[in-house]
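User: I'm writing a short methods note and want a consistent example. For VWFA domain-containing protein, I'll paste the sequence; you return only the C-alpha cells, no commentary, since I'll be parsing the reply automatically.
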Amino acid sequence: MALTGLQPLDLAFSFDTTGSMCSVINEVRSNIAEMLQRLTTDIPDLSVALIAHGDYGDRYETEIRDFGTSTADLVRFAKTVKDTYGRDEPECYELVLQQARTRLSWRPHSSRALVLVGDAFPHGVGSARNKYKIDWKAETELLHQLGVTVYCVQCGSSRNSQSFMDHVAKVTGGLRLPLAEFRGVRDFLMAIAYREGGTDVLRDGYEREVRARDGAALPGDVSAMLGLVRRSSAATVATSDAAGSTKTTATTTTSRTKTAAARLPKAAEATKSAAASSGRVLKKPAASKSAAKTPRARAARSVRVRRETCLDRHLPAALAALTWSP
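Assistant:
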C-alpha cells in the first residue's frame, strides 16, 4: 500500500562482507530483488544506496552504489559483490561512517537513515590498523548533525560490537537490533524501512503480516525486534546532558512525521493571529481549585480528556498526511 504526502526518504544499507558474515550476506542476496521491489512500491519517493565493506588490506575497503542507482543495478551489485576476509577482529566501520557522510548524495530536505549490518566494531583512532586515522565517534556525531538516523543490526553477540552499536544508535536516535538467526535479516531490514517509511500503518501492517506468516514458528529474535521497533516509536528515553541533569525525550514519531510536526508551531502562530483579528479569545484564565471540584467543572474536564484522547489517536495520521514544502 503506497502512501502520499510524505517527504523523500533516503535509505542506505551497509553490509560487512567479511568471512563471519557469509550466511547473512547470502540471505540478503536471496531476497534483495523482492525487498527492493516491494519497498519502492510501498514507500513514496524512496531512494536506496548500498555499501559493502571489508577491512583495510582486503580486495576492497568499500564498494558503494549511491542514491539514484536503478533497482536493477542495486540488485546486480548485491548479488555479485565479492566477499572479503577481514584482517583483524575490528573492521573498517569507521570508514563506512565517514563515507556514508561524504560519498552518499543525500537529498536536500530528505528523511535520512543508514542501516549498519555487521558483527564487529571499528578500529580506535589510535590503532595502527586505522589507515586514515578516522575517529568513529566523531563521525557518528557528524552523521547526527547531518540528520541521519543509524540503525544497527548486530549479528552475533560480541560485547565490543554491542557497545559500538549502542553508542551509534543512541547518538543518532536509531536502534540496535540483535540478530540471532541469519534467516531473519530480511524481516529486520524490511521492518526498519517501514518504520522510516513515515507512518504506523506500514510498520504495524508488516508486523501483523510476519506474525501471521510464521505463527508459533516465528524466530524469537524477529519477534523481539518487531516489538522493539513498535514500542520505540512511542518510548520515552532518559538522557543526561553535559551538566549531568536528566532530561526525558519523547520519541513518538518517525523522522518523516517529525518534520511535519515541526511545522505545527507556525500553524499555531497563524491560528493565534487569525483569532486576534476576529476578536476570539484563545486563552482562558485558570479555574480556581474550589471551582474545579464542582460537578460542572468535572464534566468540562471529562469532555476535555475525551478531546485530548481523540487527538492522541488521530494526530499521527494527520501529520503523516501533511505535504512537505521547503
